[in-house]
Each structure stands twice: as structure tokens, then as C-alpha cells.
Amino acid sequence: MMQNRGIAFLLVATFSFAIMNVMAKALSDLHFMQVVFFRASGTFVLLLPYMLAKRIPLKGENPMLLMLRAVTGLISLSTFFYAMQVLPLASAISIRYVGPIFGALLAFYFLKEKVVASQWLSFVVAFSGVVVIKGFDFRVGYFGLSLALTSAFFLGIVFVLIRYLATREHYMTIIIYFMTISILVSLLFIPYWRMPVGNEWVSVFWIGIFGLIGQLFMTKAFSLAETTVLAPFKYMEIVYAIVMGFIFFGEAYSTLSLLGMVLIVSGMIWNVLAKAKSKKNLVSTQTGIADK
Question: How far apart are CA 55 and CA 49, in angstroms?
Fold first, then answer.
């Protein structure tokens, strides 16, 4: 029952993030840091009163790490929004999804976490998908690709930091740091901003709301079900992006471009399953040693 609820919550989260991404791309004529401001301020305005009412700590116990997570998250988000302005929606999202690979490599180097052989193979599969997308979609230039990969790299750092902070800080404290830093840094780019017009106001209004809904539902989903169960459903965001990109922006994809996306998703799901199997084998081995 809880597992089914977790899947349902995740589907709501991925759909919310997909709508948020559509809103961000609809604001492509604005400076990307202005889009970051709208995304962050919308969530901040909704989240802060709730945290104050529930007495959820704003400062936290690890302010320096919370700040580092916020800065790396900001870099990942801003480069992602910029990437969406120059790349097709689903391509930008797909390439960013290799972020867990960078997270695994960073955890391997800094936290000494084990990466098994099948995980390395899954990384190759996922990155081959990036190569296929770049090689067979003329709309994916090197600049846009570098933005999406930069976003993925810093997303990997975010994963490592959240893994450490998750048991030490309230998840809303982590989010409010991220939103606050995003707002403050984006304000430095005010000279490049302009006033939204027409339907842009719709995107301005909803982008922060759907971003917050996505974050809350995803957090709840992963508290109800295991990552191995949820992983395949998490990548529904790419399916949503393909459909929404076609409906709202007239974006279409060749068979080879879609193959590249499939390779990325397959590689990332394989990574999750391989990591889960490795942990299970480790527990079994330790249990066997204890029994002896």
C-alpha cells in the first residue's frame, strides 16, 4: 500500500516538475537568472510562512554545508534553465539526468563509496545516450550540451551533499537555503531583466508553485518507497517533456534522438538496480560472517 502511494506521489512530482520546466522554457526570452528568481521566490513565499508557523529551523545545524548545497544547487538550476533556452526541452532534461553518475563518481572519490562493475557499465550506456543525442540532433550544439552537462555535474554534487544532510537537517531547511541563495544571487542580474508581458505572467505565477509541489511530493515519495521501485517512474518526466515540448513548442524528435534518451534512462535505472543489488549482497555477506 505504501509502495503504491509512493509511486503515486512520485508521478505527481514528476508531472509538477515537467510543468515547471515548460513554464521556464516559456520564459526563454527573459534572462535565465530572472527565471531563476521567479522559480525561487515563488517557492520561498509559500514555504517561509509555513516553516515559521511550524517552528522549523531556518538556520540549521550545518550552515556552511547548507550554504554549499545551496550554491551548487543554484549553479545546477541556472545552467539548466539556460540550457532549456537553447536546447529542445526533452533533450535538456535527458542530458541533465546523468547527474547521478557524477554524484556516484564524487561519492566514490570523496566518501569512498563502492562502485561495482555493473554500475560502471551503466554509466557507459547513459553517456552513450548523450553522445547519440548530440550526434543526431542538429539542435543540440556544443554550448547547449556544455550547459546541460555542467548542470548535471553540479546536480551530482547536490546529491552527495543532500545524502549527508538528509539525516542531519529538516528537508525544508535545506530547501529554504537553496531558495534564499538563488534569490539573492539572481538579484545581481537585475540590469539584464525586463518586465514580463502577456502570457509570460502565467509562467511567472506558476513556476515557483509547481516547483515546490514537485519537491514536496518527491520527498514524500522517497519516504514511502525504495529507490529501486521508484526509479523507473522518476524518468516519466522525460516522457512528459517529449509530449509537452511537442504540444507547446512544436518540438519533434528523430528516432535516433529518442534512442539516445532511452539509453540515458536505461543506464540510470541500471545504475540504481546495480547499486541496490550491491548493497544487498554486502548485507548478506556481513550477516553470513556474523552468523559464523
Answer: 10
